[in-house]
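Hi F.,

I've been meaning to write this up properly since the lab meeting, where we talked about keeping a consistent format for the predictions we share between groups. The idea is simple: the sequence comes first, exactly as it goes in, then the structure tokens exactly as they come out, then a line or two of notes. No screenshots and no reformatting. I'm using this chain as the first example so we have something concrete to point to.
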Amino acid sequence: MSSCDNSSPDGHDFSPGHPHRPSVQGQSEGGHSHGLEGHATATGKHRKRLLWVLVITLSIFLVQVIGAFISNSLALMADAMHMLTDATGVFIALIASILATLPATSKRTFGLMRVEVLAALANGIILGVISVLIFVEAIRRFGAEAEVHSGPMLIAAVIGAVANLVSLLILQSGQKESLNVRGAYLEVLGDLLGSVAVIIAGVIILFTDWYIVDQLASIAIALMIAPRAYSLLRDVIRVLLEASPKGFDVDTARGHILAIPSVVDAHDIHAWTITSGVDAFSAHVIVDEDTWEGRDFHDILDEVHACLSEHFNIEHTTIQLEPQRHADHEKNTHS
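Output, unedited:
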């Protein structure tokens, strides 16, 4: 246990497991790491779940495409195309999770961990594009509503809804840990809502022959996809811009470091996310002259690493210790 404070200035507890700071996968139990050898990506942890969802999604895609051709339903075809984009996204996430486990090299010091983030970016873009295409096709069909056979439409939609529900249960535990698993979870959730919309449209057509409901259901599916695409892209951009990890506050971290005996200041503090489940931290830490002259600063370094591990769940840290007299040479242009 380090000697730094367990709480932030506003009284929030940032100890491990506290809801203000979600736990990070792939961390060691003690000490600190200067490399990434011990970090398993969050997506990799749930690879088997993603594989099961991929198989289920592709199967339902085929069922819905056949049902759409038989029933002549745009809404069912829209849901099938959404299923295909989901399958593509899950496949990309699986490939990325494998590439992300490859070892670091002298030219790629973080390995290929960021591939997972790029995969999530591609997934978000695909979602956005499919949303626009569905919306445009639905608008184009207004005024020329074709006959829709509600029986095959309902059967395919119900099968899709049940399969999506199973996929959601498979992905539930991993969607809070990985951007790619979260992307797959959100897509399947959208598919479930889309299947429900198709079922409602099918029931209405069955009893009323209001074929325009098919286009309206298609538009509803497109409008459900768009916000999820935005949400995923927002989180991906946050990572790519190297913003502070969610739940991390630079001022709180500085306060913890300053609470360590013999530490007089800390600057050039940076915190960012390499990929889902792997956060990193760097800082310049100034120690008092007596401690520096006595060369007792090694314990301070261990204290800083232990503090960041205990209170912020960050294992990959880079700390530069400096004596007070050196501080004048540093330009405090960073936070």
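Notes:
The beta strands are 263-275, 278-287, 316-323.
Residues 25 and 72 are 47 Å apart (CA to CA).

If this format works for you, I'll send the rest the same way.

G.
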